[in-house]
């Protein structure tokens, strides 16, 4: 009898524990997310930045995405097509994606291959102004083989076909909703752009552009027990400091991304004990770009900073090498980024397969730099500044207006002064520097200076498109041209084996960094602030920071 | 008076047109780009296509004339449609933001309540606090109260809102944990606790803004009262045996309020302009914050529309202040 009773009690307790472990959808209430760069549109194809694409990733999903380690995993697709499982054709010219069966849009209608084909047409439309157009370049056609299968055919054999429909930048949109939004009309479909129908864990209840988004759990989400939160309160605006304060000091918000702040400011805030700062390293590296062309204002505007006129000072590789040797990257990284940065000699620092892991440049060598410049024929003048053939060694160095970057400029100027180079510093507002307006003289593309400093990265986990940008035929930023480099890029385009690709990329990295046209400084992390009561977020530098929002829950 | 008003109104029209042309030219000449925040991974050819889709690079004069037509014809027509349920403006291209691709006026309509509530309330609170301070400072000139009042006014005028705002946040939100630092624009007030919550989140921005209004209005009132307290009619009133209350509050104050009312009327357009800095600090996300973010990304339609609206309000309220002065002060006659 006693045994029966204890068994029954045990069974009752176990079932209670069982049900509470299998948390119900929406059991955890509201989660508060803060993005100091406010979202202005919910359609990533028309997005202005990751501040738009990240919240959209709560609603819209691609066929596959990247997890926090950079591994590709299927979202709407059943699995990742590869050559081994037959999803990718042996000639690398086509890829077959299969959708998971039973997927539903948040309005209840089924997700079919028609939606995927429509998405391709939407972005490939030349008048659409689609931000992810580069992903679809090289695509010949996209067709639906049946309700759940899509075939993408490329014009050339494509070693890495995981560009379109992968990551937060290329999600699947509903054909029915966006039917009247093709081409030039894409800009004015405000209802669809603000309230897209998606398959993600949440749906948009209210969207105030540049202000706040209210999201509710998607009742048609494919996992019946997720998301654990019933509501998302997504707020935008202010600055990084206010955002960090709201998560780490006052606990008003649970999650804030993009916290690019001085390391001591963040560590002080962390001491309050209400939240933690998490860093993750992707492919973002802060670089110095050396202008191999002459930016002199005395040249006619069409010839300024073009390969027609080589740079009188920086064309000599010994000069560029000396400038790089004079830098102490570890000091820079420590001062500017603390635990949120690592000094690096590599142009491509990650993923591990592509990272060369060079460390020789990390040692600062001022005497060696001085010797190199002497060798190159630059003799010190009476004021300590080197000169050659009557030309003084004076460089203009431009970057964006930011506390860390301007600090770096001052430090680098000091080091270069020690090796006899005079530097004129300039800083330009980021919205002007990164402008795509070709008539604007201060853009990073026009490069009307000798040296530039900014950070660059590539989307996804394969740098194929990134490396292709520095070939001779492309108007690349340092105006770099090397036949060996071009040959390696062509070889990369033909190689599908991931190990061999790693080898080639490492060679490309060596070629470029050994030319000192691009000088890597600091490998920068993505920084997020997370409240101690929030469980689940895994900071991700390869895809949206909110990539696993369906798993987030309130810690008890 | 009527002639004067009509003359002024007629001059307003070319003034505003000139203002809109100057603003538009300045914006087109300014550097900056709606696409500057896109990740560097997006290549220049794609950006060029996005610019073409937005229509950024078209001829300047065409864009200006199109904006004029949209602002003066299409938008009022759309407003008429919304009010009366008609469909005259269907299919017509409204003014669209380059950033969100949504109609500019919807965003303004969404943001206006926040700004009016916070900044409007701050203005009212500022004026209400300034009145007693100004009166007492003038009445008891050079007394302790006056000295303190003067000192506080100087502080209020000298300390910028980006300092006092952050200081207020540090004290009341971080150390004392009494008030929230981030304004929730989606808060719906339908019961006592949400009303309290709304009050709590409004206190800091309202007080930071009110301090500045209080400072200069109390000084205006003080000097105006001092002017009047030395007048002969005040001596006559006292000699007649009137109560000090009646002398100060009925005679002197009413006369002193004339210039102060006009100053208050001149300050009203600033409510719509929003307190740009304060809105940014507290993330109130009203019209001021909208203007700043639009300027940063060179969103010309948004900036053009907003600054033109402010220009209209300033010109109109200037006229209102001038007319008020004529109405309140019988000594002033316009012809």
Account of the 3D structure:
The complex is a heterodimer of chains A (556) and B (335). Chain A has 556 residues and is α+β, with helices and mostly antiparallel strands. Chain A contains 15 helices and 21 strands. Chain A has helices at 2-21, 50-56, 113-124, 133-136, 190-194, 240-248, 263-270, 317-325, 329-337, 366-375, 403-418, 430-433, 464-468, 483-494, 498-515; strands at 30-35, 64-66, 72-74, 94-98, 139-146, 149-154, 202-208, 212-217, 231-236, 255-257, 275-290, 341-343, 379-380, 386-388, 391-392, 394-400, 422-428, 451-456, 518-531, 534-535, 553-554. In chain A, the strands form five sheets. In chain A, strands 1, 7, 8, 9, 10, 11, 12, 16, 17, 18 and 19 form an eleven-stranded mixed beta sheet that branches. Chain A has a three-stranded antiparallel beta sheet with strand order 4-6-5, with helices on one face. Chain A has a three-stranded antiparallel beta sheet with strand order 13-14-15, with no helix packed on it. In chain A, a hairpin with a 2-residue loop joins β14 (386-388) and β15. Chain A is globular. The model of chain A is unreliable at 14-22 (pLDDT under 50). Chain B is globular and about 85 Å long. Chain B is built from 13 helices and no strands. Chain B has 335 residues and is mainly α. Chain B is 75% helix and 0% strand. The mean pLDDT of chain B is 87. In chain B, α1 (2-29) packs antiparallel against α13, α6 packs across α7 (192-229) and α9 (244-267) runs antiparallel to α13 (300-328). Chains A and B meet through α5, β9, α6, α12 and β18 of A and α2, α4, α6 and α12 of B.
């Amino acid at each position: 009898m006693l045994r029966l009773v204890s068994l029954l009690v045990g069974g009752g307790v176990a079932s209670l524990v069982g049900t509470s472990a299998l948390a119900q959808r929406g059991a955890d209430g509201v989660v508060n997310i803060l993005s100091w760069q406010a979202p202005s549109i919910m359609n990533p194809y028309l997005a202005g930045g990751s501040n738009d694409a990240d919240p959209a990733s709560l609603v819209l999903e691609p066929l596959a995405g990247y997890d926090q380690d950079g591994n590709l995993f299927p979202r709407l697709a059943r699995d990742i097509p590869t050559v081994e499982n037959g999803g990718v054709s042996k000639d690398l010219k086509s890829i077959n994606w299969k959708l998971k069966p039973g997927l539903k849009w948040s309005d209840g209608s089924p997700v079919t291959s028609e939606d995927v084909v429509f998405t391709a047409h939407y972005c490939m439309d030349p008048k659409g102004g689609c931000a992810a157009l580069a992903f679809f370049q090289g695509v010949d056609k996209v067709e639906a083989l049946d309700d759940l299968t899509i075939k993408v055919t490329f014009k050339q054999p494509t070693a890495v076909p995981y560009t379109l429909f992968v990551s937060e930048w290329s999600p699947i949109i509903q054909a029915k909703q966006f039917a009247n939004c093709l081409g030039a009309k894409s800009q004015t479909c405000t209802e669809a752009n603000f309230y897209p129908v998606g398959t993600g864990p949440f749906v948009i209840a209210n969207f105030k552009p540049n202000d706040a988004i209210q999201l509710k759990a998607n009742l048609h989400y494919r996992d019946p027990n997720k998301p654990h939160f019933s509501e998302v309160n997504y707020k935008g605006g202010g600055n990084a400091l206010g955002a960090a304060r709201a998560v780490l000091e006052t606990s008003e918000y649970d999650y804030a991304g993009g916290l690019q702040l001085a390391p001591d400011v963040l560590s002080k805030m962390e001491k309050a004990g209400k939240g933690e700062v998490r860093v993750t390293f992707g492919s973002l590296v802060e670089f110095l770009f050396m202008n191999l062309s002459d930016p002199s204002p005395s040249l006619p505007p069409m010839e300024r900073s073009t390969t027609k006129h080589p740079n009188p000072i920086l064309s000599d590789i010994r000069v560029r090498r000396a400038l790089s040797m004079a830098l102490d990257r570890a000091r820079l990284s420590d001062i500017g980024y603390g635990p949120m940065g690592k000094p690096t000699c590599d142009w491509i620092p990650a993923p591990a397969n592509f990272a060369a892991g060079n460390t020789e440049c990390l040692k600062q060598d001022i005497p060696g730099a001085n010797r190199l410049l002497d060798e190159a024929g630059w003799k010190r003048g009476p004021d300590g500044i080197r000169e050659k053939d009557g030309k003084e060694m004076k460089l203009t160095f431009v970057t964006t207006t930011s506390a860390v970057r301007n600090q770096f400029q001052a430090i680098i100027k000091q080091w270069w002064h020690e090796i006899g180079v005079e530097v004129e510093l300039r800083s330009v507002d980021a919205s002007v520097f990164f402008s795509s307006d070709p008539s604007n003289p201060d853009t990073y593309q026009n490069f009307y200076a000798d040296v530039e400093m900014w950070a660059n990265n590539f989307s996804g986990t394969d740098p194929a498109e990134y490396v292709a940008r520095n070939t001779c035929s492309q108007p690349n930023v340092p105006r770099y041209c090397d036949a060996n480099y071009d040959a390696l890029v062509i070889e990369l385009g033909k190689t599908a084996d991931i190990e061999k690709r790693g080898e080639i990329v490492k060679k490309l990295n060596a070629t470029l960094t050994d030319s000192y046209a691009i000088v890597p400084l600091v490998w920068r992390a993505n920084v997020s602030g997370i409240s101690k009561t929030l469980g689940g977020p895994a900071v991700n530098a390869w895809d949206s920071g909110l990539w696993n929002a369906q798993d987030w829950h309130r810690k008890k | 008076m009527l002639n004067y008003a009509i003359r002024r109104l007629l001059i307003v029209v070319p003034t505003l047109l000139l203002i809109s042309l100057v603003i538009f030219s300045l914006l087109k000449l300014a550097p900056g780009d709606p696409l500057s925040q896109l990740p560097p991974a997006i290549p220049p050819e794609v950006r060029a296509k996005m610019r073409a889709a937005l229509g950024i690079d078209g001829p300047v004069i065409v864009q200006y004339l199109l904006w004029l037509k949209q602002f003066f014809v299409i938008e009022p027509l759309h407003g008429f449609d919304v009010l009366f349920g008609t469909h005259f403006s269907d299919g017509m291209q409204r003014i669209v933001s380059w950033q969100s691709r949504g109609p500019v006026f919807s965003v303004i309509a969404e943001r206006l309540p926040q700004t009016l509530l916070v900044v409007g309330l701050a203005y009212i609170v500022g004026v209400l606090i300034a009145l007693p301070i100004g009166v007492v400072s003038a009445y008891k000139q050079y007394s302790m109260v006056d000295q303190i009042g003067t000192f506080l006014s100087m502080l209020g005028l000298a300390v910028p809102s980006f300092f006092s705002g952050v200081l207020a946040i540090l004290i009341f939100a971080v150390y004392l944990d009494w008030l929230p630092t981030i304004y929730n624009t989606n808060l719906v007030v339908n019961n006592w606790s949400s009303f309290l919550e709304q009050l709590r989140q409004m206190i800091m921005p309202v007080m930071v803004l009110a301090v500045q209004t209080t400072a200069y209005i109390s000084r205006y009132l003080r000097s105006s009262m001092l002017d009047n307290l030395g007048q002969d009619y005040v001596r006559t009133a006292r000699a007649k045996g009137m109560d000090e209350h009646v002398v100060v509050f009925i005679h002197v104050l009413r006369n002193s309020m004339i210039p102060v009312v006009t100053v208050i009327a001149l300050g009203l357009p600033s409510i719509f302009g929003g307190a740009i800095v304060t809105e940014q600090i507290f993330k109130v996300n009203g019209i001021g914050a909208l203007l700043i973010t639009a300027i940063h990304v060179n969103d010309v339609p948004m900036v053009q529309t907003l600054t033109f609206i402010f220009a209209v309000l300033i010109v109109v309220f200037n006229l209102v202040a001038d007319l008020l002065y004529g109405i309140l002060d019988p000594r002033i006659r316009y012809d």
